[in-house]
Amino acid sequence: MKHDDVDRALGQASRASEPVDPALLARIAGTLGASVEPVRPLPSSAALVSRAAATCAAAAVVSALALGAYGVRIMSAAQVLAIFPAAAVLIVLAATFAVRETIPGSPRRAPAWAMPAIAASVFTAAYSIAFDDYRTPRFLAQGLICLRAGLIVAIPTAAAVWWGLRRGYVVNRAAAGLTQGALAGLAGAVMLEIHCANFEAPHKMVWHTGVLIVAAAVGALIGRFRKS
Asked: Per the domain annotation, does 88 fall within a domain?
């Protein structure tokens, strides 16, 4: 069959088809019109990133002030400069990753798992530079206290981040859960930097960073098995 034969067959089919009843078309149009409602457009990506980052930072600061800002009060200027500017950059980066997973077609310059890996590496490097006490008395007991406190902050932060991004469309639920969990974990980790007065480098490397890793892992699991 040639192209001309196909065109001829389609033309004959269109001529042979009966016209549709105008009343039927009117009923269909009326049904569709009754169910269509105006949709409020999503904010820009930059606005979503700003809101998610602000949610994380506010959760960290407010919870640290509520518990007591004991750690930051005794930090040296060098320690503050080693920790908090890096934390601010990581919060914005994590918010960018989280927003990206709610907008299909967003450019993927790195996989979702890279976010917690980058954050953990940066924090570990900052701790190694800023703190030189490598003793580990009561390593487990004190560490579990900080891990629990950080996760307690991360849980409501994750809920707030999810609420702010809920109108997006998630294609990969595990990746979205991981990035939102990592952002919430950063809130817990930054809270600990403001609150915790334990300046032992191993404590910070394992337990403060552990809040971020655990929150990201739990977020990925929740996203993976969430039905809707």
From this structure: yes
